[in-house]
Amino acid sequence: MKILVTGAKGFVGKNLCQELKNQNQEVMEIDASNTEEELVQFCSQADFVFHLAGVNRPKTEEEFAKGNTDFTAHLCEVLKQQKSKAKIAFSSSIQAVLGNAYGNSKTGGEQALFDYEKETGNKVYVFRFPNIFGKWCRPNYNSMVATFCNNIANGLEITVNDENAMVPLLYIDDLVGCLIGMLDGKEPEVLSSENLKEWAPKADPDLIEASLKEHTYYTAGPVYKESVGGVAKLLYSFKASRENLMVPDMTEGSFEKKLYSTYLSYLPEDEFGYDIKMNVDARGSFTELLKSPDRGQVSVNIAKPGITKGNHWHHSKNEKFIVVSGKAMIRFRKLDSDEVIEVEADGEHIKVVDIPPGYTHNISNIGDCDLVTVMWANEPFDPENPDTYYLEV
Questions:
Q1: Known active-site residue 263
Q2: Which of 30, 145, 245, 296 could form a disulfide with 133 if both were Cys (CB 3.0 to 4.6 A apart)?
Q3: Active-site annotation holder among 102, 116, 263, 266
């Protein structure tokens, strides 16, 4: 398919175009630098149009109408002249129901598309999106999340006027997935009056009902309703994770997982790498890497040749040892037994060795180079309750 994307260099446009290219679609990109001739040419070829171009921070209010209403009407006219049969997806906003200059210009663009659909019979999808967040969104512009991510990642102050204020948030990858799904005939989610009233609580409910009764609008999801203070707290916890090693909630579909990915995209480029504490002695080193309250702790253990570490057991704590370099002998002994169990492991044939509770155990470097072992424990180490008891194997 040949896909026309207006506003291709904007936040949503850039993410959409990159994923379309990943899926080997032919993308025709339009932004403010393109000529009228190029717009006409692309409109004549397009199989589908994603109309994402718009103005949201103009110098004068008149520019709202020019960039949102007038350009949309012009796009429709060019498509009609080219006798296009392409479907159109238009990125509007929940502000269309707020009655401000920006919202009114979006409403004007919506109406131009509804008129175009009625006249030509070509399907139009008008999306009213809530606040969108994700990589490549411009900070200090029109996104709270982008500004917070940028400032916190770069050690700058943020301003929170009302930490309890609730904000509807849509992740960019979810939005892009919805749009691309339309190319395969997947219908997007219809916007309900309940959702619109929740996302735009300052809007006139009667105006919302009237607009949805007259036309069908669409949205993407899931939409997360988060407090401003809650978002800020999460972002500060991400920053602190380099010190406390705690991994955020990575549950599939969780807001925290998506916000963490967004936060990382705003890190200063000279701070991608960072040091963590190594506990070093003559035997080698032990370094905690990552911790999670529900997924345990990952560490790396380095032992010099001839060195044995461990000789302890646990009541409930359990571990997994993965030798990634060198050669090891891992030994076990049940507390009430004299039998010693031996498991050999090396970096040439990587295996996972379970360390069950109730067995004292150790690991010896039986090679001639450093032994490097990745160790996972089912719980982060707690010095107040270490559940670790010395006993020679």
A1: no
A2: 145
A3: 102
